[in-house]
Amino acid sequence: MITFTSFPPPSFDNSDVSGGHYRQDEDMDMDLENDFGEGASKRLTYPGETLTSSQAFMRGHGTFVHDEDVVASVAGTIERVNKLITVRPVQPRRWKVDANSRQDAILMLSSVNLPGGVQRRKLESDELQMRTFFEEGDLLVAEVQAFFADGAMSLHTRSLKYGKLRNGQLVSVPPVLIRRLKSHFLTLPCGVDLILGLNGYIWVSKHVKENEQEGEEGFDAEAVYSNRNDNIDEATRSAISRVSNIIQVLAAHFIALTDAILLEAYEWALEQGTIKDLLQQDVGEALVAAVTTPR
Amino acid sequence: MATVPISKSEKSYIQSSLLLAAPLRADGRALHDYRTVSLETGVAPLSNGSAKVNIGKSPEEGGGGTEILAATKLEVESIESGAGVEGGRIACTVTCSPAAYPHLSPNALDDLQYDYTTVLHQTLSHQSLHPSNLGILPKKKAWLLNLDLVILSDSGNTYDALFMAARAALWDTKVPVTKPVQYAARNSSSTSRLPSDAMDVSQDEAQQSGFDTRRIPSATDFELPDYWDEGEVLAGRDKWPVCITLNIHPPTYFLDATSMEEAAVSLRLLLSFSFPSKGHATMQSMRLLGPGELQLAQIQQFISVCISRYPSAFLVLSHHCFQEGEKYAQRLHSALESKLRDEEVRRNQRLRFALR
């Protein structure tokens, strides 16, 4: 004889569930009423989580009212002042930027150029579409604005010199090899722009004429935050590759990079023929000898 | 699969450079050029065979390039009571150094290690490549060949480097020479003998005593006789395969990708070939990696670029790829072979100097 039984009803006790779930008490309203001050401030909300009834409490930032309930609209920590419930978002309005440094640098939403002019106020919609400006993996050039108390850098890109990088490739060298120059934005006569970052990241890209850069008044967000490369002809591409290889050879020989040395090395390399040979040992040594011997 | 973050503009820059009339890569290489490969065998003195391989390291710099350390260690296994297999077995393990992948979480690192280990183990421990001299005593003892590889740094093309390092380490491996030993109880016929003789009777002697009718292998243990070298090389060591990775960005493909280039293409075809000194080259394994797909239209494009007049579109592509892969694998194999022979000569000279 075979009998079928149903499964025991699932237990709703979350306390024994390990993993990435936030602790969630059974009776939300009671929780809010009782220990809202101390214990709940460490609790995180998720967007759409019902916090409490709107009859007893007022909704603040980060919440909205739905069916007589106060509902969180962001992930964050709950704060309460008397009857006012607010949710402070977890990571607000900033990007973390790898700056080849001990700590990640921080780029605030308020420190980038937003579409629609410099004087425009930040809106909540800007926060929601931060990924349309910069997203994961994007490369950008920025200036250090300030340092936080823990030594982390705060960056800004509120100039047309700064912003998203495209039309080229990245070369990474030890940071000590970058000398302080009058300008770290170089243009080589071979139609290549160089950005010598003080953190050792060097951006080698196609030259963009000054008057073709995205203008101040007609700030074109689509052009500034575009991911698409311009058309780059083969001569420029091989020039970019050649400059990248020169930088790599010089860095391998521990020679500090300045505009003068790069120019001289480029002229020397042009006479030497193929680009990939630069990475060979003897050619590299000849290049270094040619650049470092005084004339 | 991408282990480095890459921005969209970098990705499209790499991809569009590949599709030019004269394809150009970031460091000026042509599509089918390899970076400089450095190789040294005998780097780990305590192992039975070892090798270090670096792809793309610039000569002056300390770091850089994809660096792999491979070492083999032989271990005696009991077949009756342990995990041993008749004729010995091979176990490959790949470990990724966290320093090589600083931005990967430990879990992601484990996954990556597992992927590498699977491909390498399945290819190298295949029956067709099994060396014949890994057995010690039939039905009793056999060697377990542990092949351990460590990825010390990764700048692309890890699979090719792993296979190169594995091949070099296996080429370098010396199996200790063993002699079977039987412990014979002293019986009436051997009473006249000296006790020391009775303790150490070699196998052929033991078979002469016609008392043993049970016909079980009489040797119960083995000893390591003095030998002029650390041992014999693995049998059939010329068969160990090399691997070629074709990074496919339709309609073209390229070899020896840097990590940025690996991140920019979505499809990789791994082909490993074995080139025995006698006979034809054989393909030992094939893997298609990555989320990309080859569509029929793209394959047809491939065909128009490559060869035509084959009945099935896919056959042509695969045929072409295999042919190309075999061509490059053959080149890689002969270069590696000559380097390994050089290394042998160098180390023998060193040994001779040391003896003098």
UniProtKB/TrEMBL annotation, chain A:
> Does this UniProt record's set of keywords contain RNA-binding?
yes
RRP4 S1 domain boundaries: 87-145
* Protein keywords: Exosome, RNA-binding
Please give a single GO biological process term from the UniProt record: TRAMP-dependent tRNA surveillance pathway
**Region named Disordered:** 1-25
Q: What is its main location?
A: nucleus
Report the protein name in the record: Ribosomal RNA-processing protein 4
Chain intervals with Polar residues compositional bias: 1-17
Q: Which family does it belong to?
A: Belongs to the RRP4 family.
The record's annotation in Pfam families points to: ECR1_N (PF14382), KH_6 (PF15985), S1_RRP4 (PF21266)
Tell me which Gene3D superfamilies the record gives: 2.40.50.100, Nucleic acid-binding proteins
Where is the protein situated, by its record's location annotation?
Nucleus
From TrEMBL, chain B:
Places the protein is found: Cytoplasm; Nucleus, Nucleolus
Q: What is its main location?
A: cytoplasm
For this record, an example GO cellular component is:
nucleolus
- From the UniProt record, which GO molecular function terms apply? mRNA 3'-UTR AU-rich region binding
Which residue intervals define the domain Exoribonuclease phosphorolytic in the entry? 34-176
InterPro entries per record:
ExoRNase_PH_dom1, ExoRNase_PH_dom2_sf, Exosome_comp_Rrp42_subfam, PNPase/RNase_PH_dom_sf, Ribosomal_Su5_D2-typ_SF
What's an example Gene Ontology biological process for this entry? exonucleolytic trimming to generate mature 3'-end of 5.8S rRNA from tricistronic rRNA transcript (SSU-rRNA, 5.8S rRNA, LSU-rRNA)
* Source taxon at top rank: Eukaryota
Q: Which UniProt keywords apply?
A: Cytoplasm, Exosome
Keyword Cytoplasm listed? yes
Q: Does the keyword tRNA processing apply?
A: no
Q: Which family does it belong to?
A: Belongs to the RNase PH family.
Q: Which PANTHER family match?
A: EXOSOME COMPLEX COMPONENT RRP42, EXOSOME COMPLEX EXONUCLEASE RIBOSOMAL RNA PROCESSING PROTEIN
| Protein name from the UniProt record | Ribosomal RNA-processing protein 42
Q: What is the protein's species of origin?
A: Meripilus lineatus
